[in-house]
Design brief:
α1 runs parallel beside α10, α2 packs across α3 and α6 packs across α7. The strands form two sheets. A six-stranded mixed β-sheet has the order 1-2-10-7-8-9, sandwiched between helices. Strands 5-4-3-6 form a four-stranded parallel β-sheet, with helices on both faces. It is α/β, with parallel strands linked by helices. The longest helix is centred in the middle third of the chain and has 17 residues. It is built from eleven helices and ten strands. Bound molecules: 4'-deoxy-4'-aminopyridoxal-5'-phosphate. 4'-deoxy-4'-aminopyridoxal-5'-phosphate (PMP) binds next to α7. Pathway: Amino-acid biosynthesis. One of its GO terms (biological process) is cysteine biosynthetic process from serine. It is an enzyme of class 2 (transferase). Its cofactor is pyridoxal 5'-phosphate.
């Protein structure tokens, strides 16, 4: 038996997540589909990696001093990562979040000692948008840095330097395709760039939810959104600095219903309780696997734990109110 070695600090528990072959999706695609278990990070999401890289980068640039404050605007998971990293390294955290995000994320951030600032959901062009609000708070707070996950490429560097090499090793250097959705774009761009450096023939596919503009951008150069999605943390309307230069070969558009289908199957057939972005990613991986053919080996990201969404995705009333199908076992 090989067990992981003792870590000297909690920061080094970030990353080195397991990779699992997903039975149902592999069967549906007729090839091998694997999920990178990012819910196994200490903050239970893929964003711990970006949070750590952003904080380390600010330290290296001399912007963040002992006892300083990290300010970020986030759909939640980056805030959780930043709060954890801040506590572990002796910093304070201020997290600005749209009030539409899940109750569990807000409670988690408060529990993690972050100062939480909730703002109404607003378009990016509105100065009250959570990203602009977080920048202003950082500017007005002494000793504070703005994490700026969307346009700070320390975010995608985390994936170039850790997620991609981990996948490459875990796949024993044999991988045909990788796909995931984009929030900041750090994961798709960083893993894409990292994997292409190992093997330029790996197909990198963007899996876009409805309501995002990137599918059209990569398909025909037009940043145009259609429809909407209840998925948290994904769906981008612009080319962030992290997305700039991302090696996207092809793209899929996935509905919430398709994503929920896989969230349900992953729970019922594989015992994995995941968030909706993971379900959308799995749907994208199945589509990519079908396109690449029977011997393909495709990897996607299982972004965060479903325990973060007990009052939404896993709640019959919430699903009904959104006009979404309800998992049969929730009706008891
Ligand atoms: N899924 C969830 C649940 C997230 O919180 C995020 C981060 N916003 C993503 C996926 C997308 O990751 P990235 O920001 O690296 O594009």
């Amino acid at each position: 038996m090989t067990a992981p070695a003792i870590s000297n600090d909690t920061i080094s528990l970030i990353g080195n997540t397991p990779l699992v072959r997903l039975k149902g999706p592999s069967e549906a695609a007729g090839c091998d589909i694997f999920g990178k278990c990012e819910f196994a990070n200490p903050g239970a999401s893929v964003k711990d990696r970006a949070a750590l890289w952003i904080v380390r980068d600010a330290e290296e640039r001399g912007l963040l001093k002992p006892g300083g404050t990290i300010v970020e605007g986030t759909a939640g998971n980056t805030g959780i990562g930043i709060a954890l990293v801040a506590n572990a390294l002796g910093y304070k955290s201020v997290i600005v979040m749209p009030e539409t995000q899940s109750r569990e994320k807000m409670d988690t951030l408060r529990a993690l000692r972050a100062e939480l600032v909730l703002v109404p959901a607003a378009p990016f062009s509105n100065p009250g948008h959570f990203v602009h609000t977080s920048r202003r708070i950082a500017e007005e707070t002494e000793g504070a840095v703005w994490a700026n996950q969307f346009d700070n490429i320390a975010n995608r560097r985390a994936h170039i330097e850790t997620t991609a090499p981990e996948i490459w090793e875990q796949m024993e250097h044999r991988i045909d395709g990788f796909t995931c959705a984009a929030g900041t774009g750090g994961t798709i761009a960083g893993v894409g760039m990292g994997l292409k450096a190992f093997d330029e023939n790996v197909t990198i596919a963007l899996t876009d939810p409805h309501g995002a503009a990137l599918y059209n951008y990569y398909a025909n150069g037009e940043l145009k959104a259609e429809g909407s999605s209840v998925a948290e943390g994904i769906g981008q309307g612009r080319i962030t600095a992290n997305l700039d230069g991302a090696p996207i070969d092809t793209q899929f558009r996935i509905s919430d219903e398709e994503g929920l289908f896989w969230v349900e199957r992953m729970l019922a057939d594989e015992g994995l309780c995941l968030g909706l972005s993971s379900g959308i990613n799995v749907a994208g991986a199945v589509a990519l696997g079908k396109q690449l053919g029977p011997n393909a080996r495709v990897v996607t990201i299982l972004c965060d734990t479903g325990f973060r969404y007990l009052s939404s995705l896993y709640n019959a009333e919430w699903l009904k109110a959104k006009g979404l199908p309800v998992f049969p076992w929730l009706e008891q």
